[in-house]
Amino acid sequence: MIQKKIPLILLCSVITLSAWANADSLQTALDTAKNQYRVKTLNEFFRKYHESDPAKAVGYAREALNLATEINDKKGLAAAYNNLGIAYKTQGALDKALEYYLTSLRTYESLNNKEGIATTKSNIATIYSMKKDYGQAMKYMEESYTLFVEMKDEDKIIRSMNNLGNLHSEIQLYEKAMSYFSQAYQLSEKKGTVYADPLTNMGNLYFRQNNYQRAVEHYEKALELERESNNKLAALNIIVNLGITYTKAKQPKPAQVYLDESLLLCNELQAFSFHPTIYKTIAENYSTQGKWKEAYDAQLKYDETREKIYGEESSRNIAQMEMIMEFQQKDKEYDLLKQQDEITKLELRNSRLFIVLFILGGLIILGGLNFFYRKKRVRRM
Question: What Pfam family is a match for this entry (predicted)?
Answer without folding.
Answer: TPR_12
